[in-house]
Design a protein that fits this description.
Number of strands: 3
Order of helices and strands: HHHEHHEHHHHHEH
Number of helices: 11
Number of domains: 1
Strand order of the largest sheet: 1-3-2
Oligomer: single chain
Helix content: 55-70%
Radius of gyration: 22 Å
Largest sheet: 3 strands, parallel
Strand content: under 5%
Length: 271
């Protein structure tokens, strides 16, 4: 509805990860990516070049997708598989690199995130953070969910933030949906839905994490029995982190920002 009301017309549509995953696993590299990804992980673990045991096999499609692009460009399957293996290795290295920060911020011990949709942004984020830390004024800004709650009281609560963001997005999307009663119903429905998401999603993810703790403990015990007192991180999908209020509110705010960027970027054909 937001896209319709903004009048955006683009000839290339981002179909999202379900279609991308199907394309990747259906490619020539997709046939090989799971055994290759597992082999790369085992080799890096044995050579102590990674601490991450990536159990997120479904998201190996990222490696296959990149490899399939190489095959399309070079018409060489070996090159595609080699690049897929390289990307698999990079995802493990990025997961190790970000593991401590992820564990401290989200409160999820013993895990890392080799999910390439998240891990690949790490070098860019580090560079931008380094730049912002050196800009006077900006380097003193400290905005997070805790400071928002302290400064704005009830209006800083995740549920209220979700309601406010939902009302704003709903107003943009449904201001011309019909008469006043229809518009109000749709806008209020959007606000209540996003408020419920902000309330329920963190609790759902917490339950999921409680179920993953035994898996992490068992994997670490298995490795320690064979390699001594070595730390092992269980590599999981970044979906386990989306329950954090900061992640939810950021993603909601980024929806209109992404649409605005689609409008103003010169030469852009993607929506």
């Amino acid at each position: 509805a937001i896209v319709t009301n903004t009048g955006i017309h683009r000839d290339i549509i981002d179909v999202g990860w379900p279609s991308a995953a199907a394309i990747a696993f259906g490619s020539s590299v997709g046939l090989w990516v799971i055994p290759v990804g597992i082999l790369v992980n085992i080799v890096l673990l044995l050579t102590r070049m990674t601490r991450t045991l990536n159990v997120d096999v479904w998201n190996f499609w990222h490696f296959a997708f990149v490899g399939s692009l190489v095959v399309a460009a070079t018409d060489n399957l070996a090159y595609g598989i080699a690049v897929a293996a390289l990307v698999a290795a990079l995802s493990l290295l990025f997961a190790d690199w970000s593991a401590r920060a992820v564990q401290q911020f989200y409160g999820v011990p013993g895990i890392s995130v080799p999910h390439l949709a998240s891990a690949q942004i790490l070098p860019i984020a580090i560079v931008l953070n380094w730049i912002m830390d050196r800009i006077p004024g900006i380097n003193r800004i400290n905005i997070n969910t805790d400071t928002i709650e302290r400064r704005f009281g009830v209006f800083g609560e995740p549920v209220v933030m979700g309601l406010i963001i939902g009302l704003v997005l709903g107003a943009i999307a449904f201001y011309n949906a019909g008469d006043l009663s229809v518009v109000l119903a749709k806008v209020l429905g959007t606000g209540m839905t996003l408020a419920a998401v902000m309330l329920l999603l963190p609790r759902m993810v917490k339950i999921l994490m409680e179920g993953l703790i035994p898996v992490s403990d068992a994997a670490q015990a298995f490795v320690r029995k064979r390699t001594g007192d070595r730390e092992l991180l269980v590599g999981l999908d970044s979906a386990i982190l989306i329950g954090h209020p900061a992640a939810i509110s950021s993603s909601l705010i980024l929806v209109p920002i992404a649409i605005i960027l689609s409008i103003i970027l010169p030469g852009n054909r993607v929506i």
